[in-house]
Amino acid sequence: MAENEKSMSVGWIGAGRMGFALIQRLLDAGHDVAVYNRTRSKAEPLAAQGAKLVDSPAELADRDVVFIMVSASQDLETVTIGEGGLLTATVSPQIIIDSSTVSTAVSTKIRTIAADKGTAFLAAPVSGSPKVVKAGMLTLAVSGPRETFDRSVPLLNVLGKGVTYVGEDEVARLVKICHNVFLGVVTQSLAEITVLAEQGGVEREAFLSFINDSVMGSVFTRYKSPAFVNLDFTTTFTNVLLRKDFDLGLEAAREHGVPMPVAALAAELVTAAIGAGYTTEDFSTLLLEQARRSGAELAADDSFVDDGLGTKAHG
Questions:
Q1: Which CATH architecture has domain 3-169?
Q2: Checking CA distances to 109, which of 63, 83, 173, 197 falls within 20 to 30 Å?
Q3: Domain extents in the chain
Q4: Which residues of the chain are modeled with pLDDT < 50?
Q5: What is the per-residue burial (b if ≥16 Cβ within 10 Å, else e) of 39-50?
Q6: In three state form, how does the secondary structure of the chain look?
Q7: Could you tell me which of 240, 258, 238 has the C-alpha nearest to residue 250?
């Protein structure tokens, strides 16, 4: 670790599935980390690993760097400028690194308020899941002041394998929204061709193995193969959150005059999956909805399938 990285005290707001796994990486790397989570009990296991737990975001205001990872724009406002918010204390952190998926408007608002308090603000949305985090394969797109980014890189590198500076201000938000729209479109397309192959007599595992080994395969298609083969829909990202990101992406498309007919249709299919009751399971349940529309009945294979993360995933 660089000397400045060692001396930086870290605060973290939001110890959900992703936040929890990322905090563990910082603790494992020897960082001094204090954590606020709305439901304190969910963060308590981190205390046993060396984290200090606090009862309000404002109690993290004296930290050098504070990460935020919450679910929505309103949550970001609440933990920063709401009652007991991070930016309501008499002191402020040197740097805020926000890894929430939120609107550009809210991000700009919080960035401006932070600047008035003398706090630099980086937008740093991530790509991955808790399992990806544990495999050290998380990636981040970061925007904001270049000097602040350069100072924060050693800390960001602890979180995963790829940290990309994409520009000033809020452009990282657009990068993440584009990423998640692509995520939904690819998953819907993968569901369609997988159901087509199975209806034609090809086993899902064999078809996905072929795709994954071809030039069309990717880290993502391999990562989602266990869910498709074993019908294991343990949550990494829900259809509800995916629809929110489609809404943000289509809003940005209208703003910039970019037609997105494929994304618009995929958004409707995600909405249909939510209407069918798939609200808390993983968004790979898009496969089940595609099967239903096709009159197909899928059965779990209960097989060990390579997930591309150095493990075999079993249904």
A1: 3-Layer(aba) Sandwich (3.40)
A2: 63
A3: 3-169, 174-314
A4: 1-3, 313-315
A5: eeeebeebeeee
A6: CCHHHHHCCEEEECCCHHHHHHHHHHHHCCCCEEEECCCHHHHHHHHCCCCEECCCHHHHCCCCEEEECCCCHHHHHHHHHCCCCHHHCCCCCCEEEECCCCCHHHHHHHHHHHHHCCCEEEECCEECCHHHHHCCCCEEEEECCHHHHHHHHHHHHCCCCEEEEEECCCHHHHHHHHHHHHHHHHHHHHHHHHHHHHHCCCCHHHHHHHHHHCCCCCHHHHHHHHHHHHCCCCCCCEHHHHHHHHHHHHHHHHHHCCCCHHHHHHHHHHHHHHHCCCCCCEHHHHHHHHHHHCCCCCCCCCCEEECCCCCEEEC
A7: 258
Alpha carbon distance 250, 269 (integer Å): 14
CATH level 3 topology of 174-314: N-(1-d-carboxylethyl)-l-norvaline Dehydrogenase; domain 2 (1.10.1040)
- pTM of this structure: 0.85
| 314/74 Cα distance (integer angstroms) | 37
Pairing assessment for the beta strands 65-68 and 95-98 based on DSSP bridges: parallel
Which tokens is 184 given?
């939904």
Residue 27, CB-side half-sphere exposure with 13 Å CA sphere: 19
pLDDT at 6: 55
Nearest to 148 by CA among 97, 107, 103, 76: 97
Question: What number of other Cβ atoms are within 10 A of residue 82's Cβ?
Answer: 17
Longest dimension (CA), the chain: 66
Q: How far apart are CA 186 and CA 237, in angstroms?
A: 14
At 123, which amino acid appears? A
Residues 250, 267: contact at Cβ < 8 Å? yes
- What gap in Å lies between CA 95 and CA 278, rounded to an integer? 38
Q: Measured between alpha carbons, how far is 260 from 249 in angstroms, rounded to an integer? A: 9
Report yes or no: 152 and 159 within 8 Å, Cβ to Cβ. Answer: no
Residue 315: per-residue pLDDT? 44
146: tokens are 């270049």
